[in-house]
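Can you make up a protein sequence with its backbone structure tokens?

===
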Amino acid sequence: MEINEIIEQRKDKFNSLQAKGIPAYTKADASGVQIQEAVSNFQEGRRLSLSGRVVAKRLHGKAAFLDLRDVSGKIQLYFKEGILGQEQFGLLELIDVADFLGVQGELFKTHTGEPTVKVESFTVLAKALRPLPEKWHGLKDVELRYRQRYLDLIANEVVRTVFAMRSRIVKSIRDFLDARGFQEVETPMMHAIPGGAAGRPFKTHHNQYDMELYLRIAPELYLKRLLVGGLDRVYEVNRNFRNEGVSTRHNPEFTMLEVYQAYGDYETMMLLVEQMFSFIAMQLWGKTQFSYQGTTIDFAPPWQRRSFAQMVQERFEIRAQDDAETMLRKLQAKGIAREKNRLSRSQVTKIIEDILEQDMQSAPTFVTDYFTSLCPLARTKKDDPFLSERFELYIAGMEIGNAYSELNDPIEQRRRFEEEIKDLETDEKKAVDEDYVAALEHGMPPAGGLGIGIDRLVMLLADQPSIRDVILFPLLRPEGQHTP
């Protein structure tokens, strides 16, 4: 049967309900229980009220069986004309799979031992004018799953499990940090100056103030202002926006955790992230080992470390002292980026990182010793001014996090901001954040800062290959166009 014909039939049933004076959209019994509670605490003869979506319907003359589902589970409903009366039992002809019902009745078990509700009365809560996808067998079209996530959640139990896990992961992060004296805060999502990380911003306009604003690419500079203000341990679970490409690991809108601890450094952040990730795994499974895409990963500390400076010198003969032109020339000598005539230092290093990322093992790895010229917000190492106290965290070949010993010298910070602006491409817009520099001039304690990509962490823990599988509503091209 064609979809339009099905919709018309359902509209006819809706009209029939209206003609009988029965509302098709009404309130549920707020005193009802969830289905899982009724099943888990089964008591023969217990009277209760349940609400949920009809997911199966079987008519047998003067009796009928329906399956009802809510977020917690599913249960069988038994309808009998002799109990309901002819008029109300006849209303079942107007009920379709996907409709929402409220039912009242008593629990019993069938001869096969299945928990069932003997329905004494029922109410139509919401009439569905469209059918469920593919007769409840699940959505197979990946593009449709992302575009109509509500159908994906209805049809695919594993999807509901993934997003339930995501909520548990974020809660575990909060529990871990709260127990260690960190204060959760909120910072602006609209910035007058795009800053705090590398990335192209989305631009908007505030009408009342007649000013250009940018959706934040990172909350870092605001969070460090709070360190200046005396909030020694802060964190934010924040939404960031970068007007850049999309892939199985990138979405223009994404969720980050940022953590800042006064009197700490990047070594402090290494210990913190090892302990936090182990805590999350223990909360989920009671162990630190899990599987991602067929590979076993273990969050038990200590994690291995590798030097970025050493890796690029061994593979590309590039040193931290090299300028962008020299770096590009050495890459081209290895057959890389030969079509390029000029690249900024950060662009050259992005090429290097993309190549090295492919060499990363599955085990959690801290990549340290990044070039100071690539870390405008990080403190330099005492024994080598060309390298910074920074790490990037890689797990299963993905960059999951980034951390610094934070630079708190306002004179050096201004110089680095100005150097960073000189290195930008002509179509990028950035300016020195004068207020942030002024905040540093008031004194910021030495600190460690950490950023973790929540979406990628959920990908790992939920064993999902694409970032779109862990974001409820990922950004997609207009319908009809292919999304990469």
Q: What stands out?
A: The mean pLDDT is 92.
